[in-house]
Specification:
- The chain has 351 residues and is of the alpha+beta class.
- 35% of the residues lie in helices and 27% in strands.
- It has eleven helices and 17 strands.
- A hairpin with a 2-residue loop joins strand 7 and strand 8.
- Helix 8 packs antiparallel against helix 9 and helix 10 crosses helix 11.
- The two termini are 15 Å apart.
């Protein structure tokens, strides 16, 4: 069987890699990733190598006046900014904001790790079946392979900022920003698709095996997808409330649009997932399904969350926001997942 993932909002699923400000130069509203081996080979033939190595050693942005020709002639790849307004924002941003997380890729091109999908499905399954302590074990029924490699044509560098709630009065909040400086990330644009192999282990769903494992009912794709959709529904409710608190109209409209897509996906046997970088606590924890008092009590027992819970502010009070055309617009990482029956597709690695 084959799965297909369609990106709904700018999405980054990375492998931990980043472009430092000495790995690229910005020219013509795009990030030009430098082919450093080729540049070293060129400079080794003349006197400019020491100057270039000196700039690299200081780990700052390369001086465009001196080295800008490399952006034009020695770029390994070119990633356009989402909008021309990103360029002046990048130019004003401090150095520590200019490392750009990159999408998972090999020499053959970008791909979607299967673990990102299976992890999101597992969290949704735990969310919807909180009383069942064997939910993680039951995920053995499905396998999700890494997607095939795709083209980079639909990838862009997006600008993001972290919004935070500022208390005005009890239960009244306003918008604040965690930092004046934006961040940047290479993300798959809406409409990008990934395809890979989806497997289901019918043996584990057999009646005798389920009795032995003490599973009350089969773990079907339909059940997994509905669990994921219940989790997505809860996340979107929280995001809609956050948009109302902060008066971010663009975010509110984006959340409403995703909610419409969720309704359509449910009717057509698909599911929505929030995956990858930037989704924050709400996309990683099944605890958001607990009643508020219990939710805060559970989190307050952990030293990492204790201070935030004691403030009495909603938790989490931050969201990473993707900017479109220089305006706060949407949330990162929302995708739609569907499975086509009876289709086989060779891909790299099952997870």
């Amino acid at each position: 069987m084959k799965y297909r993932v369609t990106v709904l909002t700018p999405t980054l699923v990375g492998d931990g890699g980043k472009l430092s400000p000495i790995d690229y130069m910005v020219w013509r509203d795009q990030v030009n990733v430098l082919d450093q081996p080729r540049i070293f080979k060129l400079l080794s033939k003349g006197p400019r190598l020491d100057g270039y190595l000196s700039q690299l050693q200081r780990a700052t942005k390369l001086d465009f006046a001196s080295w800008g020709g490399f952006a034009q002639n020695y770029a390994d790849r070119r990633i356009p900014f989402e909008d021309v307004s990103c360029t002046p924002q990048w130019e004003r941003a401090p150095l520590d904001s200019l490392s750009i997380p990159t999408f998972a890729a090999t020499a053959s091109g970008p791909f979607l790790p299967g673990s990102a999908l299976k992890g999101a499905l597992r969290t949704g399954f735990v969310f919807a079946n909180a009383a069942d302590r064997s939910t993680s074990e039951k995920m053995r029924v499905v396998s999700v392979a890494d997607s095939g490699h795709g083209s980079r044509e639909t990838f862009k560098v997006y600008m993001l900022r972290v919004a935070k709630l500022v208390a005005k009065s009890p239960s009244q909040y306003a918008l604040g920003w965690k930092s004046d400086a934006p961040g940047f990330a290479e993300m798959a644009s809406p409409g990008t698709t990934f395809e890979g192999t989806w497997g289901e282990n019918a043996f584990l769903n057999g009646e005798e095996v389920r009795t032995t494992l003490r599973w009350n009912e089969p773990v079907t794709r339909e059940r997994l997808f509905e669990s994921a959709n219940l989790y997505a529904e809860k996340q979107l409710q929280l995001h809609a409330q956050y948009a109302a608190w902060t008066a971010l109209d663009g975010l509110a409209a984006a959340v409403a649009e995703i909610q419409k897509k969720l309704a359509t996906a449910r009717n057509e046997g698909r599911c929505l997932l929030a995956i990858g970088w930037g989704g924050g606590f709400t996309s990683k924890s099944a605890a958001i399904g607990l009643p508020d008092e219990e939710y805060r009590k559970v989190l307050g027992a952990f030293p990492f969350y204790e201070r935030a819970i004691k403030t009495g502010m909603p938790f989490p009070k931050t969201r990473r926001i993707v900017f479109l055309k220089n305006k706060p617009a949407t949330l990162p990482g929302w995708v739609e997942l569907g499975v086509e029956l009876g289709v086989e597709l060779g891909v790299d690695q099952a997870s």
